[in-house]
Amino acid sequence: MEEYLIITFEETTMALYMERICKREKKEGRMIPLPKAIDAGCGLAWATRERDEEVWKRFLERENIAYERMVEVEL
Amino acid sequence: MIYLDNAATSFFKPPQMIEAVCEYLKHPGNPNRGSHKAAMDAARIVLDTRMELAEFFDCHFSGVIFTSGITESLNTVIAGMFTARDHIITTYMEHNSVLRPLYRLGCELSVSDGSPEQMEGLLKDTTKAVVMNHVSNVTGEINDIRAVGKFCREKGLFFILDTAQSAGVLPISMEKEGIDVLCFTGHKGLLGMQGIGGLCLRGEPGIEPLKVGGSGIRSFDRRQPATYPSALEAGTQNVPGIVSLNASLQYLKERGIENILEHERSLGGYFAGKLASCDRITLYRNPRKEHVGIVSFNIEDMDAGIVSDRLSHLFEIETRAGAHCAPLVHRHYNTQSMVRVSFGIHNTKTDADRCLQALEEIMERTGKEVKR
Questions:
Q1: Residues of chain A with C-beta less than 8 angstroms from the C-beta of B36
Q2: What span, in angstroms and rounded, lies between the C-alpha atoms of B133 and B91?
Q3: pLDDT tens profile B63-93
Q4: Which residue stretches of chain B are H helix?
Q5: Which residues of B fall within a CB distance of 8 Å from A33?
Q6: Distance between CA B24 and CA B38 in Å, rounded?
Q7: What pLDDT, on a 0 to 100 scale, did the predictor assign at position B367?
Q8: Model pLDDT, residue B370
Q9: Angle, CA B308 vertex, CA B304 and CA B309 arms, to 5°
Q10: Which domain does A18 fall in, by range?
Q11: Which of B255, B263, B275 is closest to B358 using CA atoms?
């Protein structure tokens, strides 16, 4: 088991855009099916071992990516 | 065969588009339905195509919505944004894919010539929108959408644009032209497959969906998600069609739509110029306007269907005759039908000359019949 930061989205299109930008920017993480413990609109979520929420918030704002929530979970 | 019916569907399809679709069909996936590789690969190409279209029409990618074609797009927008209590301004150049949804809605409708000057005089307190085409599918004339967009912004109206005959031929910026909703089809100037089209939104104009159903998100909610694009994309998408658009957009970028416009416009201009010099032909062309490569005409009182049939049967030249689903154009010109020639990316001046020669022969052979 390892701690992950999960970033969720309202729309699948935005989740896919997140994946595209993270790939371009070489950000750590990958798209996973939304863990059952988390409630969110879209069934895809970004899971990353880099758990500094503030860093991610700045990144998401800079890239104009609309996210729903950030939650730490053990996967 | 000489194909001169590109306003109905473009005959030339880029080979790389056909290849991309065939390749996709070897390993399809359902986008937004699961996170396995095939589903994600399909979802990624759908996103990529949204982004390409957003760049093409100058809007945000989350406002790019896929439909089965422009008829569905226009039905969605007209039924989903307006009510019978609204007043809407349109033009006499519209296709039935605009007119019939408006008639069915039962709204108050005013028909203009497409100019802001005439629209100004039609304004009412209840006016909500201008719904019109960029290019007439019958005469090929180009409407001044920048002027109409400016008018709509000044008057607080929605501007809904039908780009069936212009997308892929004329450059369009939703932002610069002030378009709120742009409806497009994939199989004409965009050179993609039939069965794919869409609409692009500037901002969030608020559209009630025509269809509801599976969205891949918020599955326990009884209502369709309100966020775009899911709000208007119930059901499995036409991914082969989206793949085709993706590849054809790349082709258009490489070829340059300004070159395509120049090519089609010059063929249309050449052909129309020759027809204009024949006194037995009536040309339906507004001299005060610019045109794409569409030319409509009649030979004296000959049935347009017979002319088109002879072109096809005797000369293997494929044109279209009839009302072209645009009844108000015929009221304007006092006609029932016209022969339409529409040039495409693959046509040459030789094609135009062969059609002109064939028309001359038809006129010669049917001279007595015409003059009876």
A1: none
A2: 8
A3: 999 999 999 999 999 999 999 999 999 999 9
A4: 15-26, 37-57, 70-81, 96-105, 116-122, 145-155, 174-177, 239-255, 257-276, 304-315, 327-333, 349-365, 367-371
A5: 34-35
A6: 10
A7: 65
A8: 46
A9: 115
A10: 3-74
A11: B275
Q: Which element (helix H / strand E) includes A17?
A: helix A12-24
CB contact under 8 A, B217 and A31: no
Residues of B with CB under 8 A from a CB of A: 31-32, 34-35, 40, 43-44, 46-47, 50, 61-62, 216-218, 225, 227-230
Burial B223-239 (b: 16+ CB within 10 A, else e): ebbebbbbbbbbeebbb
What are the pLDDT digits (tens) for A14-30?
999 999 999 999 999 99
Which domains are delineated in chain B?
2-9+256-371 (3.90.1150.10), 15-255 (3.40.640.10)
Closest partner residue to A13 (CB to CB) among B35, B40, B62 is B62
Q: For the domain that residue A37 is a member of, what is the CATH number?
A: 3.30.70
Helix (H, G, I), strand (E, B) or coil at B213: coil
For B155-183, write each residue's pLDDT tens digit: 999 999 999 999 999 999 999 999 999 99
Q: What is the pLDDT of residues B219-229, one digit of tens each?
A: 888 999 999 99
